[in-house]
Amino acid sequence: MLAAGQPPCHSPCYASHTAQFSQRASGISSKIPQQSTSLATPSTVSRQIPRRTFSWDIERERKYPSSDGRRMAQSMTQARELTQVFTTLRHHYSEDPNVEVCADLLIYYKKGDSQRRLAPDVFVAFGVREDLDRQTYNVWEEGKAPDWVLEILAASTYKEDLDPKLRQRTYRRMGVQEVWLFDPIGEFTHPRLQGLHLAGQAYRPLPEIEVPQVPLAVSSPVLGLQLHVRDDSLRFWNPRTGQYLITWAESLRELQEARQRRLRAEQRRLKARQRRLKAEQELEAFRQRFNAKESQADASAE
Description:
Blueprint: H1 14-17, H2 19-24, H3 58-63, H4 76-92, E1 99-103, E2 107-108, E3 117-118, E4 122-126, E5 137-138, H5 139-142, E6 148-152, H6 158-162, H7 164-174, E7 178-182, E8 193-199, E9 202-205, E10 216-220, E11 225-230, E12 233-238, E13 243-244, H8 248-301
Parallel strand pairs: 2-5, 6-7
Antiparallel strand pairs: 1-4, 2-3, 4-6, 7-8, 8-9, 10-11, 11-12, 12-13
């Protein structure tokens, strides 16, 4: 993530690179919380937001750069977790056009000041129109800050991500309802998964919950989901369906398995058709032989 006051540089925006998966995904849908002054609840229906289009020109890029010069991830472990969390949540909310899920996207929170920015690993904003062409998230244009933010800790960024002043100074003033920290290798913070929700003027820790065969679990009121640490990875459990949200890898595997099932079914249909055609041909040949014999018998009788 990028702290306020760092000079702008250049690096690709991760959100645009995964547009293809988001367009193909048709996974689990759910009711989405509407932004309010209190914590959102899963039962709240999101309001319809008219789509806005921005002319992305050189002047806009100069004022609010779409890149920060940092790598998307500082390690393969962080990259794996970032990709899985982003694609899982994007898949989950794919049927609601008023939910934006982004990864490694710069957030500008003060108009006219390009230094007032940060780039969480993953964030979710409810009541904001999904935009696959989004280059930056400008709070004054969207009308609100993201609701849910996740930082995945790495050796080169964990001190910055763990800085409580950042949360108090920036996220609290923006109005981010929940800030989450996940340490995939368990070296930088304990417990390795921490959820913080905004209560008044400060962030308070969300309590751990007991889940059988899950070593660490915390519930997110904003998402209406439980976050579980399983096999050193972060998974999202949906209490309404009683299932884990499907990951990108699982989605691709399901697509491949469905394609293989369709191919096998088509092969069975083709074989059945071939057997039917063969049977019809044999029947026709038998009829022709029978008719020929009948004709010969009639000729002999005459």
